[in-house]
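During the reporting period the student researcher (J.K.) took over the structure-prediction task from the postdoctoral fellow and processed the backlog of single-chain submissions. One of the processed entries is reproduced below for the supervisory committee.
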Amino acid sequence: MDLFSIEPDGSENLLPKDGTVNYYGKLMTSYKANHYFEVLLNAIEWKNDEAIIFGKRIITKRKVAWYGDKPFSYTYSNTTKSALPWTKELLELKALIEEKTGETFNSCLLNLYHNGDEGMAWHSDAEKDLKKNGAIGSLSFGAERKFAFKHKETKETVSMILEHGSLLVMKDETQTNWLHRLPPTKMISKPRVNLTFRTIENQV
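J.K. obtained the following structure tokens:
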């Protein structure tokens, strides 16, 4: 099922069952989105992502950064990151989506995709340090990219285009029952920055 034609306002659940995904569309003007995009490209401490797969250390072209209220540690793909202190712009964006959604977040994992060749394979965000069934607010800047969900049992898929300056929220049992991915595409040559605001628990 494709949901390209829906006029988004965040009220509709885009998943047919077993989770909740709300797409709020663009939260700001193009001018403001362009401003944040440029700041994020240049002011964030980007580093190539690392993963250890079958004992082998893989360095991705995609770059990442991890920020939070405290130097939270965050482990995925057998590597651990320590959160950096918030920047002014990240706090502004956190406040914007908290006001829009009524949720609260204490950390943010950022991804920089340089072009359409870089994507993300099917996965779910279910690391043990994340609040169980908590909301993840995904804010997108730059190139518009397709984003897809696949049910773990039925293999049913749902996909949408994430616009420049737009917000997608995943919550409830979504991570338990659904995988998601950012498929690569040869059609896009421009970069995309994605911010996933999260809640870390059980850390002092």
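The committee noted the following: Confidence is low (pLDDT under 50) at residues 1-5.
J.K. will present the remaining backlog at the next meeting.
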